[in-house]
Amino acid sequence: MDLDEAYEQCRGVLAKWAGVASAAKKPLTEADTRAKLIDPIFRDALGWTEESIVREEPNAEGFADYTLWSDNRRILLIEAKRAAPRFDLPDVPPNKPLLVGGASLAAAPVQGAIRQAAGYGAALGCPYVLVTNGSQFLVVASLDNRALPERQALVFSQLDAKRTFRAFFELFEASRVRGGSISERFLSFYEAKRTYVALQYLQQPD
Questions:
Q1: Arithmetic mean of pLDDT over the chain
Q2: Within 13 Å of residue 37, how many CA atoms lie on the same side as its CB?
Q3: How many CA atoms lie within 13 A of 177 on its CB side?
Q4: Starting at the edge strand that comes first in sequence, how are the strands of the sheet with 98-99 ordered?
Q5: Computed over its alpha carbons, how large is the radius of gyration of the chain?
Q6: What sign does the CA torsion over 53, 13, 63, 187 have?
Q7: What pLDDT, on the 0 to 100 scale, is given for residue 193?
Q8: Nearest to 32 by CA among 50, 20, 15
Q9: What's the sign of the alpha-carbon dihedral 165, 19, 139, 195?
Q10: Residue 168 to residues 11, 20, 149, 171, 202: CA-CA distances in angstroms?
Q11: Do the beta carbons of residue 103 and residue 95 sit within 8 Å?
Q12: Widest CA span of the chain, in angstroms?
């Protein structure tokens, strides 16, 4: 699936959800979010097949909502939350890394969801975890020598914006994930940080 087709699929899912939410006579549940937002986005817009998805996988910490597989290994774990209330997340460019322990991600519900997902990921040996309410997405490494607050995260909100969706699609589209898109992205900003630190050191006066 190409980017334009995927974008239109995603916009359709979001529009349909807006209609459901506005007509709902009671608060929508996490199950609603999963069935009407997360499933169709990953299936119809990102190309993940049912054969690649395991739901409610048990682990020492609880049950993972989704694990996505390739070549008999887990490559991404998804922790789903209700669509409302929305996460208190900053409006930042989609490829700007944020420190998990920084002020931008300090809201208690966000921190709790990150810790839960990272715990599941570590328990299952899954390298990356994604926390989402169906319209906001936050991804972080779960198998990392750094303490969780010292890790970097990427945030994607407003998927109806083409620029944001492009970055989201390039990171999470099924064939790209299998090709290492998430690992490459995380390695790139850790390498950039190491380069910056090295330059700062070289520029210090003797």
A1: 91
A2: 27
A3: 25
A4: 53-59, 62-70, 73-80, 128-132, 137-141, 152-156, 98-99
A5: 17
A6: positive
A7: 53
A8: 20
A9: positive
A10: 13, 24, 23, 5, 36
A11: no
A12: 69
A 10 A CB-CB count for 95 gives 17
Name residue, tokens 């490459």. Answer: 184
CA distances to 50, 77, 118, 185 from 55, in Å: 10, 10, 17, 26
User: What is the per-residue pLDDT across 138-162, written as a single tens digit (0 to 9) for each?
Assistant: 999 999 889 999 999 999 998 999 9
The owner of tokens 């630190």 is 197
Residue with token string 């409302």: 84
Rounded alpha-carbon distances, angstroms, from residue 100 to 15, 154, 158, 189, 198:
31, 9, 20, 14, 23
The dihedral built from the CA positions of residue 56, 107, 152 and 35, taken in this order, carries a sign that is positive
Q: What are the tokens at 125?
A: 């040996």
In angstroms, rounded to a whole number, what is the distance separating the alpha carbons of residues 187 and 172? 16
- Per residue, the 3-state secondary structure of 47-110, as one string, reads CCCHHHEEEEEEECCEEEEEEEEECCEEEEEEEECCCCCCCCCCCCCCCCCEECCCHHHCCHHH
Task: For residue 27, give the amino acid letter.
Answer: P
- Report the distance separating Cα 80 and Cα 24, nearest Å: 20
Structure tokens belonging to residue 167: 């970055």
